[in-house]
Amino acid sequence: MRFDPWMLLDYWELLLQGTWLTIRITVMALVLGYLLGIGVALLGMARSRTLRAIAGTYVEVLRNIPFIIILFLVYYGLPFSGVRMPALFAGTLALSLFVSAYYSEIVRAAILALPRGQFESARAIGMSPAQAMWNVVAPQVLRTIIPPSTNMTLTMMKESAVLSSITVPELTYQGLVIQGNTFAPFEVFAAITLIYWMIAIVIAETSRRLEARVGLAQRQSVTRNPIADRYLSLERRPAR
Amino acid sequence: MTATLALKVEGLTKQFRGTTALDSVYLEIQPGEIVALIGPSGCGKSTFLRCLTWLEQPDDGFIEVAGQPFGRERIGAVVRRQSGREIDRIRPRIGLVFQQLNLWPHLTALENIVRPQIVVLKRPREEATRRARDLLARLGLADRAERYPHSLSGGQKQRVAIARALAMDPALMLFDEPTSALDPELVGEVLAVLRQLAEAGTTMLVVTHEIGFAANVADRIAFMDHGRIVEEGPARQLIDAPRDPRLKGFLDLVLSHRDGPAPPLA
Question: Ranges for the ABC transmembrane type-1 domain (chain A) (predicted)?
């Protein structure tokens, strides 16, 4: 047996289609998951105990079952209650649900970490809760949520490989197809490893730039203490 | 006295799980008047300010700001609770300067003052900016407009917080312990600013430990203990000849502390 990666060139179209679909699924789940996540996070901080309980249950359930079970519940389970949808749709929805539970915890933690006085000073001056959130809380939270959200997005992107089990033709599924044709699992999955790795690099780099931009716009964060700053900074200090 | 009161508080009561934080507080403030609210810590001063801005909902009682009912209103014999929107509309009439200031660190000093005018009062940006620059200049911060709060000194931050509240054209300014969050050497600076505001005719209610400020700048002093205003009167008279034994005890404590040897450095 010999290692012959060049034969994959015959299948470049399938690999490209799979890669493109994985990227689209990831972006869709990121957007949908974040919208859901923000909603659940706000629900989790509502005044009503019932609403808080609903948000808490949502997060608990989704975080404590394996992703593949969420996927099967949505794809095979929902049709029993009369909701039938194509595999791609069901898969993206399941991925969004899965990741939204984690996003909501990230958002909630970031909001709770903000001193309460920030929101209160906005309210006391006459802003509505929504205006206070938009003008005062959100811009400050934006920066703290980027690093943990990036980690979660990477996990979610990798988890999208599980959609191959319900025949969504994303990257892993295409890999399985090629492998079936060529009986060359090592070459195929080595190539797929590389592609996933490159997608991950793009996500991490995008997040890094985003973080730098947000950081630039708001200069220093609230929590930076000038004394700590002086001792932690790598800039050269004038000699005594 | 026919002028509308800047603030009229009647029977304000607030309980926290059984303990009474405010016990039927009555207070009236004339426009242009400066009232100092003093009292031992935990007596309900901060709760009072939080109830006046409806950050905490009082259980009972009425607040009127420049003749406008705030939070609850009486229509004949019926008491009606105002909606959140109505409350938000009256809130800018009361400028609150928090003890911790709570400037918004992601906005420049100027934008801290401009943003609420645009969002709450719907002022055009140019007008809001003009107003903000004017206030900053008046408070000696004209050259600090573009700075972010973290690069301002404690006293400068406080003046930005004051300008932010003043820009809303409040009928009344509330100060929560304006000197306590600052380094001791900045206390004089803040007191000077308050005095400047007083000369400009700003109506103020100042919660303070600075008996000196209360005696020199305030027209009237109200002494609070256990959630009640126990004694109130012209500043000098109240300090020189306190009637209530609790006020006497409090003044003895504060004044002896002030005249005694300097406390050890913390």
Answer: 19-207
